[in-house]
Amino acid sequence: MSKIKFLFLISVLVITFSVSLFLGPRIINPFELNGTDKEILLMIRLPRVIVATLMGMALGASGAVLQGILRNPLADPYILGISSGSALAATLGLLSGMYMFSNFSIPLTAFIGASIVSILVGLFGWKKGGLWPGRLLLAGIGLSFLFYAILMLIISISANEVTRRALLWIFGDLSIAEWSLIPYGFLFILAGLYICISRAKALNALMLGDDFAHSLGFSVHRERLLLFASVAIMTSASVSLGGTIGFIGLIIPHIVRFLAGADNKKLIPLSALCGGAFLCIADMIGRTIMSPAEIPSGIITAIIGSPYFLYLLRKKDVLST
Amino acid sequence: MELTYSAATKKPGKIWLLNFAVSILLLNYILSASPASAEIPGRIISLAPNITEILFAIGLDNRIVGVTNFCDYPEEAKRKPKVGGMSTPSLEAVVSLKPCIVVMTTDGNPKEFEQRLRSLKIKTYIFRARTLTELPQGVRDMGLELGAKEKADTLARKIETAINNPPTPPFTKGGRGGITEASQKKRVLFIIWPEPLIVAGPGTVIDDAISILGLENAAYRSKVSYPKYSIEEIIRQSPDIIFIGKGHENIKEVSKRLLKKIATVPAVKKGNVFYLSDTLYRLGPRVINGIEEMAGCLK
Amino acid sequence: MFSVHNYPILELNNVSFSYERGNNFIYNLNFSAGNGEFIGFLGANGSGKSTILKLASGILKPSHGEIKLWGKSLQNYSNKDRAKLLCYLPQLLDINVPFTVRELVKMGLYPYDIPPLMTIEEAIALVGLQEKSESYITTLSGGERRRVFIAMILVQGAGLLLLDEPLANLDIKYQIELLRLLRELKEKKNISILMALHDINIALHFEKVLLIKDGTMLGMGNPETVLTGNLLSKAFDVNIEIRKHDSGRSYVSYEDTN
After folding, report:
1. ipTM surpasses cut 0.90
2. In the CATH hierarchy, which fold is given to the domain comprising A43-312?
3. What's the whole-model pTM score?
4. Of A125, A140, C96, C138, which has the most beta carbons under 10 Å away?
């Protein structure tokens, strides 16, 4: 993995970013901006593209890290119950009328919900002074089902309108992106990325097994806790920006692993970059093809990504054991 | 049998004539009563909120024995036994209420449910009106079937009047900036829900009402009735008037973020954002109030 | 410097350990390994070989007693410092993550901030995997996989290797190859090796063996004194005899107890 390749990928991200900025229901020519175009560009598209990039980065990196610490290729950031937890929190917030206070209250509630769930999963996954992958996974699945059931219960007994907004957190919607939330999302996601990229070596060692990691001089439990915390921070921030978007966290790390190998020092940053670029494109397509109606990005990510993933699965025989 | 009897007997004079008249009457009665409506159905179940509203409006409230969970208007409808949701009615609940007829809609009830009812020998009636213009005839047909012909006719005529002679808002007469744009219709956007942004597209009662009032639906390009709409498209369409449906008590709070984002469109700039009740959400008797309400905002 | 041969680099003093409370799995174990020694741990399945290696590497903590590395309590080392002196290779290496050979060997550098003595290329060459340095671990054979990890350990450069059944599931050819490689390393780099085994025939050719049964030591020393029919029968619960071949080589004979 040379510097040139890395720079190439960065430029791909930049190109994707600008393309999805200027393409949409209508193409905006950056050299001939009229008032409306300018307004749409600055107030609608730019925050949306930034949110898509941030969320995609957070999800891609979280997926890579989580698959590593759980040593499970099927792990997805949402497997830890973070999506259902934040949706539940947001719904409770909506029911209690919390959004009266400010624009921040519901995203903040979603973030707090996601964080509480992460802590709960951590507590259930904790035994003998550390987090255990198998326990974490099962705790996540169990809590996820529980919160989802409570959420469905609330939805089935409450008014239509609350349901509609609650679903937004379950299926994700980038159209709610706006400037005011971006700095916070950026801060949290950057912090998460920094933690996990700086722990990439430990993650490599952990993927070989706890005993290996110990032998290579890592404090197994401390490293796993840090990595888990980074996933929790990034995923929670991403959910509070635009709800839950499936597929990216699960598949992007696999695609990157196919193309660039499993070394987490490359895998985490590359998954972040590809996740960001991919969600940008998916969202661009989602708001363009059926214009003026919009298709949720989560659907597009799965429709484009899955066939490519299946193609790689057939073509490259790397995962065979 | 009367038919055979009257045809077979050939009696001369007045008696024959009387006999013939009686036969005709009897025949008439038989034909009209069988097989579809041997009697006026006594126990009715409505599987859609708009049907429930119509049934109440044509005075059939005492005969309704079951409604859906969504039937919340008029107030008394809430006290009727519930049979489940529109798309998921409970067959068991319906059967246990022993209906003479189940009134269904093509707009939201599953077709399979109708087949299932018929296989259980439960009579169904399907309300087929989908647009505002189809509504009066739909009401008449249903009234006839359910034995409330007169009242249905009165309601249908009321709706026809509202549709054909809409209150013309002064707004529609002048143009946007005066005479030059007089021919241009005012653009209207009806927001059902601000977050996620759902608007009323073509093929909805709201769309019909907008065109009846001589306005143009800004979401006319949508291929879906209730699309999840693109915010930047609102800015481009720059609607002159925005209606927001009162789906929720706190709708004003929820709409704030959206209105902030589209602050530059003429409707928001000039303060032409109105909150409307849910009268136009259902193809029922309240559309009359809905049209009036919409027109009233524009004065 | 500690260049004195047989200086005790690893000492276990009265070490006990239990997985479950009150039920000692390892009981009152005492032994020490000197600098440059190559010791085989022999015992039946579940006798405690792996547990002792994990205790010695600090993965498990003793419930009683003390473990010393180069004269200093193991617990007083930082993770990184310990990793520079001691290295543990687990028995199970079923890694299905597509790391390349080079990537894996490079992980041996993790405890270091500066490049250590042996380069990655050297280590790969020493285990004879030059041709496969860019291959994915998932495509290698069992024997090759072991060698990858030996190379990783070499890069890690620790003076004490704790290897848990490195010969398990290997063809006899690879077993011999690996043992030869380890012996060579021991000679060249003065590395001490502790290795868990369960094949008595192989143990017979070690300089020093430690026979374990149910967490206690039955004997320690050269094979002639420790691997007697009597002790082995006790350790493995089977009647075992050591016979001498005409050539003078010892071999094991199992007797049917029926």
Report:
1. no
2. ABC transporter involved in vitamin B12 uptake, BtuC (1.10.3470)
3. 0.81
4. A140
